[in-house]
Amino acid sequence: xxxxxxxxxxxxxxxxxxxxxxxxxxxxxxxxxxxxxxxxxxxxxxxxxxxxxxxxxxxxxxxxxxxxxxxxxxxxxxxxx
Amino acid sequence: xxxxxxxxxxxxxxxxxxxxxxxxxxxxxxxxxxxxxxxxxxxxxxxxxxxxxxxxxxxxxxxxxxxxxxxxxxxxxxxxxxxxxxxxxxxxxxxxxxxxxxxxxxxxxxxxxxxxxxxxxxxxxxxxxxxxxxxxxxxxxxxxxxx
Lengths: 81, 147
Hints:
The complex is a heterodimer.
Chain A: E1 2-5, H1 7-13, E2 17-19, H2 27-37, H3 39-44, E3 52-55, E4 58-60, E5 71-75
Parallel strand pairs in A: 1-5
Antiparallel strand pairs in A: 1-2, 3-4, 3-5
Chain B: E1 2-6, H1 12-21, E2 28-35, E3 44-51, H2 55-70, E4 75-81, E5 83-85, E6 90-98, H3 101-118, E7 121-127, E8 130-133, H4 138-145
Parallel strand pairs in B: 1-4
Antiparallel strand pairs in B: 2-6, 3-5, 3-7, 4-6, 7-8
């Protein structure tokens, strides 16, 4: 699946998107998997209450299942308007 | 209903006039415009707005559709810019058309509350002191609870 990062999450991880091969069942599992990779991921995902996630461009929660999902995006709370 | 997520500036007068002219059966048109404002203590050079292409358009279309139904609007227009903007520039506008003014006002407020916290934009303020991501506030989130 494609994993996208925006705003300071993108800055901490150091790239806007990447392709990830994973068997993670939920978003939370994927976060744990990424955080275990490298310090920059751990830093970005340190406090997931400060983050939002979208699955295939719809807001979701961290317990949502990843089955069939093609695009996951992590970002801070939005500041539009 | 028209949604435009764009980098280039828009002409508020032209957009408002065209929107209002298209609705002879609607007695009320409300427009709201958001403008980049300067920081009180640390003069801002620019505001950079990042967004999530694809999701942004979809999310705004969903809120606009919801507003149309909920407030029985005749039409909705949302224009939101991204990229680098300087103080004084217009960031975005919404326009709502309804038979009566209360629905047009309410729908504009509703759309602004949702755009603020549910449209995937992120603002960063650039000043001599550095660059800082604008944090979402609890008030922004609380504003949604009234709907």
